Amino acid sequence: MRKRNRFKGKDVNGNWHSGNLTVLQVDVKDVKKGCYISNKAGLPFAFQVRPETVRQCTGLPDGKGLEMFGGDITELEVDGEIRRFVVKVGTVVRDIVSHPSFTDETARASITGVYFEWQGFKLFPLVDEHGVPDNERMVIVGNVWDNPELLEGVSGND
Description:
Residues 47-152 form the YopX protein domain. Pfam families: YopX (PF09643). This protein has strands at residues 7-10, 16-19, 21-24, 34-37, 47-49, 55-61, 67-69, 72-78, 81-97, 106-118, 121-123, 139-143. It has 158 residues and is an all-beta fold. It has a 5-stranded antiparallel beta sheet, with no helix packed on it. A 4-stranded antiparallel beta sheet has the order 2-1-6-7, with no helix packed on it. Strand 6 (55-61) and strand 7 form a beta hairpin. The N and C termini lie far apart (42 Å).
């Protein structure tokens, strides 16, 4: 089993780094407060990264086997149309159908996990008739920091 890089972050020079995340709230000796990504040897303060670019691995692969991170932009063919989604990790509140023996027909649920944002909707990965989840049919085409032009049509505010 290969070791999974749990976080990515972009340094001030525009380089991406993958590894473990350390967040310092205050200066500690010669290390300034901020966000740091470890190097391959595990040095925790190897790369200082811009906090707004830090993103976490979702644990889900795309259709090419690449690990998805929050902020990735993916494409998926739906009904003959190519749609773009932004990968996010967070909490979504939904009304869901209750168990038949419950008094109320629906219940409000708070679900935390990976979702795909498209035109203002927060969509959970679904499974097709062959048992393949959406994420394994998607392809990562960029991310929101390096490829903002790919966001057209994704947010619903265009």
